[in-house]
Amino acid sequence: MTFSDDLRATAKTWDAVVGHRFVGELWAGRVEPAALAGYLLQEREVLGATVPLLAATGLPHEQTGPRRTLFDQEGNYLDRAMDALDVPLAARTGPARTGATAALCALMEGASGGRDSAGARTVLLVAEWLRLDWAGWAGADRPAEALQREWIEIHRGTPFAAWVDSLRLSLDGAAERLDEKERDRIGALFTRTAELQLAFFDALCA
Asked: Which pLDDT score is estimated for 84?
């Protein structure tokens, strides 16, 4: 097993995130419009914290380019979704964050604020890999409801999977140069990020 494989295997909340009740509702296309708007507003906050985190990884532009293209795709989708869901313009800027969203964004902002490229790669990998996993339910029919289907489709398929694979390889390579104490720190950061991702979904169902 690679370092990243081992981290995923030991993150006890991983499967709970991927199989979360909210994810199931999204896949079924049953998230009510008001709830979907609330979810996407929280996602927008997390994505806003992801942009500087990407820069903090220290990865070359040719490697991160596909992800930067995806940011544009996500932003375009969110603008259209907010219009379709009749979210007022005033509500789209600086929405109230749930406690879980605030904690997740704080973790991302902390990881992007220093010179800890391995830490930034770890936090980013958890966020991206979990997206890929919950958007890639095997054997599930994609929802008929257009907005929920498109959000899932943005985060599945070969381009996004290739980006996650490259991010995993970069963390695995970085881990080879770390001592045991640093590897343990990265492992704890991986676990904490997965826990906050679970709390993020839990807050949507509260």
From this structure: 97
Q: What's the CA dihedral at 30, 34, 36, 37 to 10 degrees? A: 160
Q: How much is the pLDDT for 164?
A: 96
> CA-to-CA distance for 18 and 197, rounded, in angstroms?
10
In terms of C-beta density within 10 A (0-12 exposed, 13-18 middle, 19 or more buried), how is residue 114 classed? exposed
pLDDT band at 22 (very low <50, low <70, confident <90, very high): very high
What pTM value is reported for the model?
A: 0.95
pLDDT the model gives residue 25: 96
> How far apart (Å, rounded) are the C-alpha atoms in residues 110 and 127?
15
DSSP SS3 for 55: helix
